[in-house]
Amino acid sequence: MLKMLSFVDAIVAPNPNTSCIEEIIDSNGALAPLERLKTLFDVRGAVFMASFLIQPLLLRLSSSAQTESCRALEDMEALRSDKDDILAEAIWNTMQEVTAAILTDDGNHDSWEDTPQEPASIHKVTRSIERYIRLLEMNYRSVDQIVRKAADCGTYAVPAETYNKTNNPFTSMMADMVSCLEEKLTKMSQSFPNKSLGLLFLINNLHSLWQQLHPMYDTKFNMPVLTRKIEDYIDKYLQEAWEPVLARLHTSPSPLQFGRRYFPKVLDPELRKKLRKAITDKVTSGFTNFLEEDTVSTRGSTITPQEVEDMLQELFEG
């Protein structure tokens, strides 16, 4: 046990300072300190479990005359407790290192991320944040204790808006990180040649994050907010990409081919199905309403709402 406790000092030795996102995120999109953070969690777990070995022995020896042995165990427990505090501080410092790199925006867009090439792509920073949040959630008890202590000591300024809703510094911290990710994804979406493709990029990335977060018990409070954001972006996408198509559909079905360029490039089957339904409902219901409300203009229409729906399905499959 003493060897394990002495090993703590080597584990918590500080890494060289990392001040920019390139040093935090490697070429594969992995957060460089994540392995270190995982190791810190594992070692702290082992140090914590050591108390279950020491405490029963202390109770047994305290009722006997073995004073020296009892004192030795008390010293060992004090050392274990000190090492636990050291590990907790190292975990918090590493979390701050990662979080600061993610949340810091120095105004240099190119230094923070690679420009996305496809709207269906899940950006490496999104993937990194997903892995980071999963690691924190896997070690929730430890993280919750550490973040609460940091908040109580004033070393972590809990975002007031989210804290008022959750009364939990840890979930507030994750909500703040998700919000910051959305801001940065929005900035990245502006690099696409048109707004529709940028909106698809936002939808794909936020849906990927939603998939990672929604099974987590302690982040469920975020899900209605994140779900509404995704729904809002889908509505904006429909308006931006398919309103122009719908506006010209009463004269010719050819605008549907125009819509092909904005057809959702989506890898996730669940999201793809959802977007297809939203597009179909948007176009067919809009076209039906147009036929019913403007009989003069549509008197010469050569297509029906059902034919429009069939053409959309062909477009989806093509």
From TrEMBL:
Keywords: Exocytosis, Protein transport, Transport. One of its GO terms (molecular function) is phosphatidylinositol-4,5-bisphosphate binding. One of its GO terms (biological process) is exocytosis. GO terms for cellular component: exocyst. The keyword Zinc does not apply. Residues 86-251 form the Exocyst complex subunit Exo70 C-terminal domain. The keyword Nucleotide-binding does not apply. Pfam families: Exo70_C (PF03081). PANTHER family: EXOCYST COMPLEX PROTEIN EXO70, EXOCYST SUBUNIT EXO70 FAMILY PROTEIN. Belongs to the EXO70 family. Component of the exocyst complex. This is Exocyst subunit Exo70 family protein. It comes from Setaria italica (Foxtail millet).
